[in-house]
Amino acid sequence: MFYFKTITIPNTSPELIERAIRSYTVTRSSYFDFLITAGEDHDKKFFTGIERGDIFLITRLTNSDRLVGKKIINSWSKGGRTKIFVRFKKNNGFTTYQVRPGFSSIVLLCFFFFWLVIVARALSVSGSDFDLLFIILILLTVKTVIILKEIQITRKLINKAIQRTLDDDMLSSNIL
């Protein structure tokens, strides 16, 4: 699949990042199981993931929006939440990750773009139907904002997992 954004995690050791992601992820054994169980609730886990060859693929769990600290508007995270997939490459040492929206979001965006082109073509020929163009632009904008918001939430959860692992390491080193 096409990943459209690469994010680098600065000033953090790759071992800490990998340990944080793995400790806050419910690992699945098959890709189908990974997709089906992405909506489950698990205490103290932020993500569900699967390991394939040299990649570790995760998506956030539905209950993880409450762990960010803010309540999501209308909590679209239940059922109809836009899935964001995050891919860590093991050979990069977990210092960078790539994100992409789920399949349904990609199909919906393609549908909106298709209708945008059709309506724009009709406007160039007839000069009417500005209402339909406006509606399609609004739907396209709303879906894009929702995807970007999901990416932001997922990014905050990754940072929170790293911070909690770092805090746990500091606490355990102070006890010893």
Question: Can you describe what's shown?
Answer:
With 176 residues, this protein is α+β, with helices and mostly antiparallel strands. It has five helices and six strands; from the N terminus they run βαβαββαββαα. The protein has one domain (5-175). It has a six-stranded mixed sheet. α1 crosses α5 and α4 runs antiparallel to α5 (130-175).
Number of strands: 6
Molecular shape: elongated
Low-confidence stretches are 70-78
Output the number of helix runs. 5
User: How is the quaternary structure best described?
Assistant: single chain
Please report which band the strand proportion falls in: under 5%, 5-15%, 15-25%, 25-35%, 35-45% or over 45%: 15-25%
Structural class, by secondary structure, is: alpha+beta
Question: What is the percent of helical residues?
Answer: 40-55%
Whole-number tally of structural domains? 1
Roughly how many Å is the radius of gyration? 19 Å
Strand order of the largest sheet: 1-6-5-4-3-2
Mean pLDDT: 81
Largest sheet: 6 strands, mixed
User: How far is the first residue's CA from the last residue's CA?
Assistant: 46 Å
H and E order: EHEHEEHEEHH
